[in-house]
Structure formats: structure tokens, C-alpha cells
């Protein structure tokens, strides 16, 4: 890629980040009280800043440390609680932009995929609440971008560099939540599959450069590099995230003890929760999660709208995105398409493992990392070929997604407020209440 294109790519990425951040910050302090799982993570960050040991041992420390960093920078207030979430929300959209560019090779199409990711709503909601999931999403999206650049690189040195950067991102994703390692296993399985097919010497009568196991693909991924990218580097990044906790404890064994505590928590039974939902119901958004609902006066009505935040995915993006993932799966299975494989693994490796969750307690927002595949999947499906009619379809999809996002914005951003009538118009099914 020429220097001028790198400059254009960097300028576009900077614009995506800044515009996303500017969209996430307004009224981020509403509600002014802790909401949903903020009641776990903000006190944990507050105690950490006060010199206490790391609390809330159910998850690794990185996300909690990042929340604490935001509070250290912006203060122990609603804006400080959520500042790093907003920054990493913008980083998530930007990482999807890079991923989209890696898949399509076009800055315009990558911008389209990033815009659709923004309008999907999942990143918007998570970027405005002090929980761990947006950090996980950012590192997963970044890992997917690096993975795509690595497998498509023509230079061995660049392919290796991108693969190692992917490993760092995967390790940091796991350091936010263990579910970040779902993607690591999915991407590692791609390497194993390609290696197996090459070992067998599989050949087809119509070989294509886009074959996912083509000898020309992934020039830097030798067995030794794979061990580094999928094992050594992720584990090193994961361990580094624990260093502040280890130093404060004054004992290297804290790393082991922390995992023993997490193991005990994860293997225990969980109480029921009103917003819990089975993993397969996420496909049709059977039970969204209410993050917040607060009245602003004694009488809820047109003159006193309530603040509401519901973790909904934009239905337009949800339906079209899932269809696009199925199309990508079909392209991979029928045509051995590399891009189709990347999107397929990105989605299913972050979705299907929840069927085996030992705790048996899942929530719809666990689906959000998988939904990051929707924008790139739709970009692949719609922009396949140079037909001008596809541009019309792309414009229609983007306009429809933007309109639906604007419609649901009152239940994405608590500061806007909803009346009984406006809330009822946005809660389409009884299970959404």
C-alpha cells in the first residue's frame, strides 16, 4: 500500500475515533447514580484507588483497572466512572473500520462498516456504562483487524508483526473477561484447519487466490510463529495485566490465587436474574437487559420524562447482520472464500461457546462481541462486485440503520428521556419489558 493511502487510512481512522467519541460523551453522566453492574465495578475501582486489594474477583483485573484510570483522570463522578468506556467505545468502532479495510481493501467500504457498527447500538450503550464489556469488545475487534491483515499480508515480516499484535490484543481481551479467549480459540482453529489441509495436500480443480488455505496466504504463520501468536504472546499480555495486582499484593502467588478464586466463582451455581436469557434467544433479541430506569419527578408523563437505558441491538442491523453472517458462512463452505471464513469465525467463535457456560447464567449483552461481525459481514455481502445497484442497496441499508438508531436513541441514552407513550412505542414485545 502506498504512503498516500496509508495517510488517507490514518486520517479516516482518526476521524472515526473522534466522531465516535464525540457521540458517546454527551450526557454520559446521566444517570448520576451507579446503574446495573456499575455497582460492582465502580466501588472496586474506588477501593483500588484508595490502596485496597483488587476486589470483585469474578473477572480478571484489566477492565477494572481501566475504570480506575478514568476515575483517576476525571474524578470519582459519573463522567469519571464512564470516561474510559467512551474512549474504548470509540476505539471499538475504529478497530472495526480497520477490520473492514482489511477485508474489503477500500476505505469507503470500511467507513460504511464502521458506521453500521455505530448505528447497531451495542457499542453506543456499552460505551456509556462503566462495565467490562466495552473493553473486551475493543480488544476483540482489534485482534480481528490484526488477524485479517496478517492472513492477507504479502510480506512475511508484516504478516508476523500483525500476528504478534493480534496475540497481544487477544491476551488483553482475556484480561478483561475470560470470554475474550473464545476468539483466540476460534482464530487458532483457523490456523489448525489451514495447516491440516496443507499437510494433506488438498487440491481443487478450480483453485483460486481467495482460497482460505492457499499457499500464498498467511506467509508469516509458521508453527513457531503460531505458538508465539496464539500462546506465548497472549499469555504474556495477560500476565502483564496482572502486574499491578501482583505488586500491590506483594506476592507473585497472587496470580495463581486470583485464578483459584475465579475458578471457584465460575464453578458455583448462580441465582436467577430477571434479565437472564438463554444464549440461542439472543438471535431474535428475546430478552434485552435494562441497565437503568429512573423517574425524574413524582408523575411520569410528557412533562416529566423518565430516564431509560436498554441494551437493545438496532433491529435493522440485527436481522440484516445475521443474514449476512449466514451468507458469509455459505461463501466459505461453497467457494472456500477466505473473507467469508474470517467473518464466520469472528461471529460463531464468540457466540456458540455460551452454549457450554458452566454457570448457566447468561445475558443478552454477552452477544455484543459477536455482533461486531455484522458491519463487516454486510460490507462483504453488499459490495461484492462493482454493480452500481449495490451502492444503492448500501445507501438504503445505512439510511435504514441510522433511522432505526435515531428511533431507539431515547432508550440508548438516558439523558434524552422517555414518556410512557414513547417508551411503549419502542418496547415491541412483552419480553422486552
From TrEMBL:
GO cellular component terms attached to this protein's record: endomembrane system; plasma membrane
Regions crossing the membrane: 81-103, 110-128, 134-151, 158-175, 181-200, 221-243, 306-329, 341-357, 363-383, 392-413
Subcellular location: Cell membrane; Endomembrane system
UniProt-listed Pfam families: PMT (PF02366), PMT_4TMC (PF16192)
Record domain Protein O-mannosyl-transferase C-terminal four TM: where: 253-432
UniProt domain ArnT-like N-terminal: residue ranges: 80-241
Membrane topology term: Multi-pass membrane protein
UniProt entry tagged with the keyword Endoplasmic reticulum: no
Protein's pathway: Protein modification; protein glycosylation
Alphabetized InterPro entries for the sequence: ArnT-like_N, PMT-like, PMT_4TMC
EC number(s) stated in the UniProt entry for this protein: 2.4.1.-
Keywords, in A-Z order: Cell membrane, Glycosyltransferase, Membrane, Signal, Transferase, Transmembrane, Transmembrane helix
Top-level taxon: Bacteria
Signal peptide limits: 1-25
Gene Ontology molecular function, alphabetical: dolichyl-phosphate-mannose-protein mannosyltransferase activity
Family: Belongs to the glycosyltransferase 39 family.
Name by which UniProt lists this protein: Polyprenol-phosphate-mannose--protein mannosyltransferase
Organism: Roseiarcus fermentans
